[in-house]
TrEMBL record:
<feature type="transmembrane region" description="Helical">
    <location>
        <begin position="53"/>
        <end position="76"/>
    </location>
</feature>
<keyword id="KW-0443">Lipid metabolism</keyword>
<feature type="transmembrane region" description="Helical">
    <location>
        <begin position="12"/>
        <end position="32"/>
    </location>
</feature>
<feature type="transmembrane region" description="Helical">
    <location>
        <begin position="148"/>
        <end position="172"/>
    </location>
</feature>
<dbReference type="InterPro" id="IPR006694">
    <property type="entry name" value="Fatty_acid_hydroxylase"/>
</dbReference>
<feature type="transmembrane region" description="Helical">
    <location>
        <begin position="88"/>
        <end position="107"/>
    </location>
</feature>
<keyword id="KW-0812">Transmembrane</keyword>
<dbReference type="InterPro" id="IPR051689">
    <property type="entry name" value="Sterol_desaturase/TMEM195"/>
</dbReference>
<keyword id="KW-0560">Oxidoreductase</keyword>
<keyword id="KW-0472">Membrane</keyword>
<protein>
    <submittedName>
        <fullName>Sterol desaturase family protein</fullName>
    </submittedName>
</protein>
<dbReference type="Pfam" id="PF04116">
    <property type="entry name" value="FA_hydroxylase"/>
</dbReference>
<keyword id="KW-1133">Transmembrane helix</keyword>
<feature type="domain" description="Fatty acid hydroxylase">
    <location>
        <begin position="95"/>
        <end position="231"/>
    </location>
</feature>
Amino acid sequence: MVWSELVTNHEATIRLSFFIGILCVMGLWELLAPARKPVIAKATRWFNNLGLVVLDTILLRFLFPAAAVGLAVIAQEQNAGLLNNVELPLIATTLIAIVLLDLVIYLQHVMFHALPILWRLHQVHHADLDYDVTTGTRFHPIEIVISMFVKAGAIFLIGPPVVAVILFEIVLNACAMFNHGNVRLPLWLDKIIRVILVTPDMHRVHHSTIINEANSNFGFSLSIWDKLFGTYRAQPKLGHDDMEIGVSYAKDPKQVTWISGLLTMPFRSNKGNYDLSHRKVEKSVSNKTNTESRATS
Ligand SMILES: [Zn+2]
Ligand SMILES: [Zn+2]
């Protein structure tokens, strides 16, 4: 297959071109028609958010030189995984693999919210006081490394064609940069795109300081998972202009904007009450209150 060979042989160039191309398009769109007025100077945020991306990329290349693509090659050579053991046209296995890998990313995102230790890392993505294309690339290096292990496990279970892994990385990156854009689509267009893909208005809800809103809309590319698993929330309660972006317990611009603050954030004592552990405490407190009120009545 010519198209698959072309993509595989020029993986790094294609991925970097898409990253820079989408960054430029979204950056220009945000400059010309921003959906919300930024709270922090754009240059400072971009310098730090993109600095973190560079750090993440260097770390990944150092720890996993073969990257996800290399793992897909090994899985194929060893006939490991579901799709390496079925007879289907390449186009079909590629599509199935992309959809399944997207499901894995959705489930991984839910876990990063649910488990307290993982939320410590993932809060770095949420603590951004503004929401734009660079927020979509802002992740703590340890979250990036854990994601790589999850992806590796998924590749050996699914057995995707090599080209599917490359296309998936491009699609995921492109979608994340698009749906973190500080832009607004006309409502009718948002509605059509949202049937399949996550739009900026849909994912912005996920960056609300309101806990229930932050714990919804976990999808990065396909919007179907949130609708299927009951985590979908159409719009923020306060509307897109008035909703507050970030996490309620970390609002100091210095601590949530500069790389030094972002790298140390998971190790600070306060991780807020967004994860599952706190919801358990709240439940037991309310149960206790109920018992006490029953006892006194
Ligand atoms: Zn999240
Ligand atoms: Zn996000």
